[in-house]
Design a protein that fits this description.
This protein is an alpha/beta fold and 675 residues long. The protein folds into 4 domains: 53 residues, no CATH class; 169 residues, Up-down Bundle (Substrate Binding Domain Of Dnak, Chain:A, Domain 2), CATH 1.20.1270.30; 154 residues, 3-Layer(aba) Sandwich (Rossmann fold), CATH 3.40.50.2030; 248 residues, Rossmann fold (3-Layer(aba) Sandwich), CATH 3.40.50. A 6-stranded parallel beta sheet has the order 8-7-6-9-10-11. The protein has a 6-stranded parallel beta sheet with strand order 15-14-13-16-17-18, with helices on both faces. Strands 1-2 form a two-stranded antiparallel ribbon. Strand 7, helix 13 and strand 8 form a beta-alpha-beta unit. Helix 5 packs antiparallel against helix 7, helix 5 runs antiparallel to helix 9 and helix 9 packs antiparallel against helix 10.
């Protein structure tokens, strides 16, 4: 086995890999060692969209200062497709698939939302009425009946039903504009309209992009990237944003809550159920059912002391930030959790589940429970399918837990749970951040802006994305984040990156004194927040968009997202969703860096367009750097460039405001909000 420290920096993961090796269990880490990536495919330079290929058009290798032979420069596919067209098509298909995955998730949430409003969804309710009314306003849904003094509050179920139907219609909308475009800064809206990339609906943009990548259709790489942009914006500013809003209304808008993360959260004397995937619909009911006395007693009748739920991947992020349910780990932990021998059921929904889970589970006693008709694993003795049905969601949750409880006595391998878990504070929605900065009455992002202007906070960074077995697990995340923190850059994080921060203690307020520069440390200590703010699942990157927009509207840091001293990165990305997310951040005006590899390096022309040309159009651009230290340096350099453009690159004296000055600031902020 390879040097464990080169595979993962997580000691719990290292312990499980040793156990796997001793017991002859193959994991993704072993397969990565045996199977190297295709050097042409990894650059996006292989076309397989028709049966005449695959056609490979690798970029000719040349020495510095030398030109490749002309015939090699002009290499193309059988149909004449150039490297630019082939690479752009592959990139576009990644954007389409990533956008489809988030938007299909969102559509399911919208359907459930309507069922909840009609009282047809067992166990669910409309928990956050305040957010319901705020979102209803965005969709022009009335929250009162009557006018003037005769106006009365409209029943929440009526509001929700009308809202849900309007939202669901946007998925099939064929003309016009998606609704949440109006949430973006005015200048950003103007850019999108000028470039013709405002999405018309959700589904139409995915379908059109897939059509354009069919053999013999769109053969202009700039045109392909344009539709990729429109498709990605439909994800970020519609699909993902919709699911975040509706989940907050049904399950509660996240507020800071204590949690715990890593494999040490499992308990040997309990029935352990890992909830793995990306849709919180069933996990919400599993939380409710796991607390029912009848099921706890049933677990005790089988010899267990109780039921221990734990999350994995983004289903974990969702239930941790709303209920404090502990997290067993991020993407590369899924096989390792089973290898502990203590997991009685791994319940999966959609996205990022390895098919190898069935084989690993067969070596132990674990039942892999698939719950979604879109995400089955082929027939296997270790796999059982229990279909999720929102009309009987609580009953389904009880059935799933009973399956796990019945399996508890079947444990046959020695149980080994690493003594590794770390406390966390999670649940920083953009609404919560606003509240923490000024309370329910004076809540505004101007407090954050003021500290950026004053230099105590250098800038803001989004660190998001997956794990990737082609790099040392969590290492790139930690290197980038710690480098940013010591340079007074506050970090917003989602997905597996947020979990990585949690595993090494960065999601607690105490981390500020250890990792941050003096300015950021002072702010974190004053407000009582961690230096890395956990904002949710990968679909919740829309929260970061809203936080950036709130900074623009608060005033003092420019008129658009592209003016902010901010940058984003995905140091260990691996999924198509990450490309879709990256594209909608670039199109929103954000400098966005990816690590490990980049899928367009097979074409210098296209890559140059993404890395330089898009900045002239959208104010944001892509970048790629494998070295995480260099990634952090580039992000800081970009933040400093934006500070200089705003004229805030020089430190200013600290001013103590009197009440008159504070009122003036508040009035300016309100005026900016209205604009």
């Amino acid at each position: 086995m390879a040097d464990l420290e080169k595979l993962t920096m997580d000691e719990a993961a290292q312990a499980m890999l040793k156990k796997a090796a001793a017991e002859g269990i193959e994991t993704i880490f072993d397969r990565a060692e045996k199977m190297k990536p295709c050097p042409i495919g990894i650059e996006g330079a292989c076309c397989r969209i028709c049966a005449q290929g695959p056609c490979r058009v690798p970029m000719p290798k040349k020495k510095a200062g030398e030109e490749a032979p002309a015939e090699k420069k002009a290499r193309m596919g059988l149909c004449g497709a150039t490297a630019e067209t082939i690479v752009a098509r592959n990139f576009a298909r990644m954007v389409a698939a990533g956008s489809a995955s988030h938007s299909d998730h969102s559509r399911g949430v919208a359907k459930l939302f309507i069922e909840v409003a009609q009282g047809k969804a067992q166990g669910y309710e409309l928990k956050d009425v305040t957010k319901l009314k705020a979102v209803a306003k965005d969709w022009d849904v009335a929250t009162t009946v009557g006018e003037g003094e005769d106006a009365k509050p409209r029943p929440k179920n009526e509001i929700a039903l009308e809202l849900g139907r309007k939202i669901l219609a946007e998925f099939g909308q064929q003309d016009g504009e998606i609704n949440y475009v109006k949430r973006a800064p005015k200048k950003r809206q103007e850019i999108w309209r000028k470039e013709g990339v405002v999405p018309r609906g959700v589904d139409i943009e995915v379908v059109e992009l897939m059509h354009r990548t069919h053999m013999g259709v769109d053969q202009d790489y700039k045109n392909l990237i344009k539709q990729s942009t429109r498709c990605a914006l439909a994800d970020g500013w519609s699909g993902s944003m919709i699911s975040t809003d509706l989940q907050d209304i049904m399950f509660g808008c996240p507020v800071p809550v204590a949690g715990e993360i890593n494999l040490g959260v499992l308990k040997e004397d309990h029935v352990n159920v890992i909830m793995h995937g990306h849709e919180p619909l069933l996990p919400e009911m599993l939380v409710v059912a796991s607390r029912e006395p009848e099921l706890i007693q049933y677990a005790q009748s089988k010899g267990a002391k109780g039921i221990q739920l734990a999350g994995m991947c983004c289903s974990a992020n969702e239930v941790m930030m709303r209920h404090g349910v502990p997290v067993a780990g991020n993407y590369l932990h899924q096989e390792l959790g089973i290898i502990t021998g203590a997991v009685d059921a791994m319940v999966i929904d959609v996205q990022c589940e390895m098919q190898s889970l069935a084989n690993v589970a067969a070596c132990y006693h674990t039942k892999v429970v698939t719950t979604d008709t879109r995400a089955k694993i082929e027939e296997h003795p270790s796999v059982v399918h229990i279909e999720f049905d929102e009309h009987h969601a609580l009953d389904v949750a009880r059935q799933v837990l009973r399956t796990a409880i019945d399996n508890f006595p079947n444990r046959r391998a020695p149980v080994m749970i690493p003594a590794a878990s770390t406390p966390t504070i999670v649940g920083f929605s953009y609404e919560t951040i606003r509240y923490l900065l000024g309370g329910s009455i004076r809540g505004t992002y101007y407090t954050l802006n003021d500290n950026v202007i004053g230099g105590r906070i250098r800038g803001v960074a989004g660190v998001v994305g997956c794990n990737n077995c082609r790099t040392t697990q969590d290492s790139s995340h930690m290197t980038v984040i710690t480098e940013l923190l010591k340079n007074d850059v506050i970090v917003l994080s989602t997905g597996c990156a947020a979990m990585a921060a949690g595993k090494y203690g960065l999601l607690t307020p105490e981390a500020a004194t250890k990792y941050c520069g003096p300015g950021l440390a002072e702010i974190c200590e004053t407000v009582g927040i961690p230096p890395v703010l956990h904002m949710g699942a990968c679909v919740d990157n829309s929260r970061i968009l809203m936080a950036a927009t709130a900074c623009v509207k608060a005033g003092g840091l420019g008129a658009d997202i592209s003016d902010l001293p901010a940058a984003g990165c995905a140091p260990e990305w691996m999924s198509e969703k990450a490309i879709a997310i990256g594209q909608y951040f670039v199109a929103s005006g954000v400098y966005t860096l990816f690590g490990v590899t980049f899928p367009t390096t097979g074409s210098e022309i296209l890559t140059d367009y993404l890395f330089k040309g898009l900045e002239d159009v959208y104010g944001g651009k892509w970048d790629f750097v494998a070295d995480p230290e260099e990634m952090a340096r580039r992000m800081i350099a970009h933040i400093d460039k934006k500070r200089a453009a705003l004229g805030i690159d020089k430190a200013r004296e600290r001013v103590l405001y009197d009440m008159a000055m504070r009122r003036e600031l508040e009035e300016a902020a309100r005026a900016a909000e209205e604009v």
